[in-house]
Amino acid sequence: QVQLVESGGGLVQPGGSLRLSCAASGRTLGYSIGWFRQALGKEREEVSCISTGARTRYRESVKGRFTISRDNAKNTVYLQMNSLKPEDTAVYHCAKGRSNVCPTLYDYWGQGTQVTVSS
Length: 119
Fold this sequence. Notes:
By secondary structure, the chain is mainly β. About 0% of the residues lie in helices and about 50% in strands. The protein is built from no helices and eleven strands.
């Protein structure tokens, strides 16, 4: 049984930083992990993906500000978010890919963690 649990969200001022964690259990080590976000009233969008070989992808709006990484020993994927902007406000979810590369389709999702960027 695959389970993904996000943590690390919160309220931060513009320009601040947060680090999100996605703790995975079950069969996840051989698969890519992605981070998604969904703002109120908007469609869900993929933020970043990391393959089993640690290759990464980012959506254009977060390049240079966000960094995805994975610690296989802890079965955890992180999303370091710097220089946060109000438009980054959303519920952030992690998801398990159906393959070991990025891009990929996803089949398991976490419950999400709220990130609010506001002064």
